[in-house]
Amino acid sequence: MNRIVLWGFMGSGKTTVGKLLARYLGWKFVDVDEEICRRSGKSIPQFFQQEGEEAFRTLESRIIRSFSHRFRVVIAPGGGAVTEPENVIALQPNTLMVHLSASPETLLQRLKGVKDRPLLLKGRSAQKNILRLLSLRQPYYDRIPFRVLTDGKTPQEVAQEILTLLPSSVEELTDKSSRLPTRIRMGRGITAHLQDFLQPSSYSAKVLFLSDPKVPALFRLQAKTALSLSGFQVYEKLFSSGEEVKNLSTVEEIWSALLEMKADRRTPVVVMGGGTLSDVAGFAASTYLRGLPLILIPTTLLAQVDAGVGGKNAIHFHSIINPIGTFYFPESVLIDPLFLLALPEKEVQSGMAEVVKASIIASPSLFACIQRNAGEILHRNLSVLEKVIRSAVRVKMRVVEKDPYEKGRRRVLNLGHTFAHALASAYPHLSHGEAVSIGLVLSARLSHTLGWASPTLPKKVVALLKKFNLPTAPPPRFLSNPRFQKALSMDKKRKDEILTLVLPVRIGKVRLARIHPSTLRNFLSEKK
Ligand SMILES: NC(=O)c1ccc[n+]([C@@H]2O[C@H](COP(=O)([O-])OP(=O)(O)OC[C@H]3O[C@@H](n4cnc5c(N)ncnc54)[C@H](O)[C@@H]3O)[C@@H](O)[C@H]2O)c1
């Protein structure tokens, strides 16, 4: 597909959604009305008044035809352009044609106060004009191959839905030589093709589908439809995610659901959610009947680059972060970057902390890539996001491949996490990614204090994390917080009071270091 054309009534969101689509795809956006104003040097009301509607339609058609050979472009023709069949025909080849529709009530609401739409303001009331024009244009809109309803949806959600209509291609992220039982694949809109990755003949006829109400309904529906069409009986359970969900009562709820549906050892558990849901559901699936087939569809950036890959899960216990969990590899991980388009900004920032972590551990080129492309990442440019996800997943999986059960080298993936877990225990308002961000800075500073890293290393790390609005210093007086102290003393990486910490030596290289409690105390007391 070379183009996307958005047809629709004024107020249907063509310009807002079109600009978003162009941003996500890295394409150009053309608003035909704006182009008319630019070429004629007149505003739309002036043009109508001085030259009339017929001249307007002629120029509009000429402009539309001039864009019919452009590639990588999102075009939003004016609301009435659809009534000229030649306009539609000119744009049709290799184009995703979408009608953005909205109810008259929504249109009226969105067009309140608008002064530059001559056909809306002509004679009678705006409401009557909307109804009359809609009934005239509806038969034309009905001929557009795809229709997306915009009522009650954010522009991001509408753009996300449109992008699920584009043909998808699937990329294998698993190394060919991998001996791990997980296959990781990435593709825009991969969720709608779930059936391709779950051969019913390998499983029992029932599937437990676990998700989160905040995951856009469209994706949940697509996944359930794909499962049903391939013959599974789908049992669904939704959990409101967040750190609070990672506890024993959620595990019990999942076990109970499995018991009620009479799950057997080949009953797959499909999890579509962020890292908290995949952690708790992964734990429940790994323990029920000593392990059920697990398929993860991570829906946050953090889960796509880290929590959803690597075969670890965990729940919190007595305010301690992640002390209970198993190593359990999912059969499949399906990464759909389209989830990230409607993800709150804060969650993208949070996910970037784990990406920065991966780059510090083993990839100077990933570090440089995110330094260069911070703006594009936050603007959700899909190609850049895919590049970042691909690199971060590869960094993690190369380490996991060599040491799946964390006997040695895999511990490097905990860079920043000793501090992060202690901070998250003491300050629940910090998200996992925010706590990791502070943990990365403390690790880089400690490394410098111990003489293993140059002073520029912590500076570089801080500067990069700040590009994603991540915190880079612990809260005031954190060292005297008893919960911080308790969590630090309970860390999984300690032995005989000596903590093993991962410390960066330079970007792309880390080392494991045994740190005496007094060294750590002295270092932290300088940071409080
Ligand atoms: N197992 C591992 O190897 C591993 C590695 C890193 C982190 N983790 C764990 O991951 C957890 C953090 O994961 P997270 O950052 O994904 O948090 P999360 O699961 O709490 O998700 C963040 C928020 O985004 C919402 N959400 C999820 N998908 C969405 C979507 N597509 N659109 C809109 N909203 C959406 C959720 O409801 C939640 O409010 C922590 O508990 C951490 O311990 C595990």
Compute the CA-based radius of gyration: 27 Å
* Shape category: globular
Are there runs of 5+ residues with pLDDT below 50, and where? Answer: none
Question: Care to count the β-strands?
Answer: 17
Number of helices: 20
Q: What portion of the residues fall into strands of 2 or more residues?
A: 15-25%
**Could you say which small molecules are bound to this protein?**
nicotinamide-adenine-dinucleotide
Largest sheet: 7 strands, mixed
Mean pLDDT: 94
Taking the alpha carbons of the first and last residues, their distance comes to 55 Å
Percent range of helical residues = 40-55%
Write up what this structure looks like.
The protein starts with a strand and ends with a helix. Helix 12 (301-307) packs parallel to helix 15 (382-402), helix 13 packs parallel to helix 17 (432-449) and helix 16 (417-426) packs antiparallel against helix 19 (482-489). The model has no long low-confidence stretch (mean pLDDT 94). The protein is globular. The strands form 4 sheets. It has a 7-stranded mixed β-sheet, with helices on both faces. 47% of the residues lie in helices and 16% in strands. The protein has 528 residues and is α/β, with parallel strands linked by helices. Residues 212, 214-215, 241-243, 246, 273-277, 279, 299-300, 302-303, 306-307, 310, 312-313, 322, 339, 342-343, 347, 350, 432-433 line the site of nicotinamide-adenine-dinucleotide.
